[in-house]
Amino acid sequence: MASTPLRYGTPITLDAARRVMAAAEAEAARNQWPMVIAIVDTAGHLVMLHRMDQAQNGSIVIAPEKARTAVDFKRPTKVFQDAVAQGGVHLRLLGTPNALPMEGGVPIIKDGEIIGGIGVSGMSSDQDAQVAEAGLAAL
């Protein structure tokens, strides 16, 4: 039997977003990784965006898109990255609007419901994901 899809809950509060952001930034700083970290609500609207010193300019666009993809499709962006890497029929994902197939975007889940998303960009995809997961641990 298939599992029930996650539901959208009440959007993330600014206070909760601050906690997630602080934990993500701390992980990036601990590793000396210049990152851009974005947090969006359940509609994919930006709640917070932090660009750490020396983060690459391109990540200012990529981080929010990773967060939106995670919220819009109710799953980590790594799912799309892995599918594209398999090639074949999975390459059709590259034509899917608003689906960024780069690891580093994760839904923010509280009490079994999606309340937002976090997207991180600036280093390798697995390092971006490590920072995002550190942010989630704050909740």
Describe the structure.
Helix 1 (14-30) crosses helix 4 (125-136). The mean pLDDT is 96. The protein has helices spanning 14-30, 59-72, 78-86, 125-136; strands at 7-8, 36-40, 46-51, 105-110, 113-121. It has four helices and five strands, in the order E-H-E-E-H-H-E-E-H. It starts with 6 loop residues before the first strand and ends with a helix. Strand 4 and strand 5 form a beta hairpin. By secondary structure, it is of the alpha+beta class. It has one domain (8-136): 2-Layer Sandwich (Beta-Lactamase).
Key attributes of the depicted protein:
20% strand, alpha+beta, 4 helices, 139 residues, 5 strands, 37% helix, five-stranded mixed sheet
CATH architectural label? 2-Layer Sandwich
User: What's the count of strands?
Assistant: 5
- What class would the helix/strand composition place it in? alpha+beta
Shape: globular
Determine the number of helices (DSSP H or I, runs of at least 4 residues).
Answer: 4
